[in-house]
Amino acid sequence: MTDGDRTLTRRETLRAAVALGGSTGLAACLDLEGQPTEAGGTDRGTDRPAGTESEAELPSRQHAWNEFSRTDEHGNPVPARHHVLLLADYVGDGPVNDGDRTQAENAFRELEETYRWGSDGLLFTVGYSPAYFDRYDEPLSELVDLPQPAALAPFEDPSFDTPDLLVHLASDRASAVLEAKQALFGELETANGSEVTETIDGTVDLIDRRTGFIGAGLPAEHDDVDGVPDGAVPEDAPLFMGFKSGFRQNQATEDSVTIAEGPFTGGTTQHLSLLHTELEQWYNQDSREQRVAKMFSATHAAKNLVEGVGDNLGDSSLVAETGVADRVEDDAFEKGVVGHAQKLARTRDEGGDPRLLRRDFATVDDGQTGVHFLSLQEGITDFIRTRNAMNGDDVANVGGVGTKNNNGILQYVTTVRRGNYLLPPRSKRSFPRPS
Ligand code: HEM
């Protein structure tokens, strides 16, 4: 693939192919990954793992991804590199009928049989919005905390996503996320060497397709996108803002975000927002020391705790160990800046553990840099509470901190869209009833 006169590197091409989608995108990926590009025949002839035939090998939680992902040398789960989000509406009015429910389950089950459950195969979740549950006469179980999406700061004005369902596809292989979408929607005869016989085609209308990526090297290759200052994003940064995120000690566990009672026991809730990022300002206005202070804390900056993108931190951002979460107001007065991670660590649970399991990734959808901020938590109230901490109202206009200036990363981030979903346990992932 080329971009004007420039020949794209392998990684750039894979990312660009996911964004492009369709048969052209898929052919480009398969070609680069050395896979047969012809969709004919069931001889896989590839080095891609075969699917998971036995249901017993599959977890009962849709969000059980960590043990099926790679881990880095510090024990942090490494997120899959390529992501596709599919927002879709059920075609009918009112409650979903049993035929469509069975058709969807067969299609999701076939995806598992086609791809191994893992980041080297395919991981996916299917979530349902409050708007979906409005189709039923009975209300959604009150043991599920799933409000309609709302603006969560006085300075934001997001649009709200209200599709019936959201499918999140993730894989280290760009071809898998593209091919799985096309298999699901009945656009392919074979996928990963298996015949496609079950699809959700005809039961849903696709209303939006979003894409993204995370992993060392992927963001740096996108300085061709508007708003990415030339050469500014560190070569090995996994995300555009230049730092590693998602350390094991700074994430909620899969257990702790799991709904523990009621009809959706074993499920979780998912928040998805689209955040646009101002990278010109982030990299040109601020020094590295200021960036470390705004992302982590002034203590992290002064003591040089973060080297490069932060690999040296191991499995913890050190916000707890350094006690900086207790110094937010003091830092506002004394240092004139408060850090993002520092502020967010103030909303941990009673046991001192983070409430959110963040599975966000970078994007250049629509030619703009941003983050598809996707998080899992037991209830959406956990997300709202955490987001309130990010707003830093209590330190706005204290010392040198403004509503957004020097208030973590608020100045560089704009919330464009928000949506909330229930991820039922796997056994109820296909058009669940509300209770
Ligand atoms: C452009 C968007 C964002 C970027 C680049 C970003 C980046 C980071 C980084 C580098 C850390 C420190 C490393 C770590 O703990 O993993 C962190 C921590 C964290 N972030 Fe963000 N973040 C973003 C948006 C958000 C949003 C929207 C929320 C939720 C409202 C959020 C919630 C958290 C939480 C809960 C922590 C961990 C705090 C703790 O240790 O208890 N982040 N983020």
Automatic annotation (TrEMBL):
Keywords: Iron, Metal-binding, Oxidoreductase, Peroxidase. One of its GO terms (molecular function) is metal ion binding. Residues 32-62 are annotated as: Disordered. It holds the Pfam family DUF7405. InterPro entries: Dimeric_a/b-barrel, DUF7405, Dyp_peroxidase, TAT_signal. Coiled coil: none annotated. Its cofactor is heme b. PROSITE patterns: DYP_PEROXIDASE (PS51404), PROKAR_LIPOPROTEIN (PS51257), TAT (PS51318). The keyword Transmembrane helix does not apply. The keyword Acyltransferase does not apply. This is Tat pathway signal protein. It comes from Haloarcula hispanica N601.
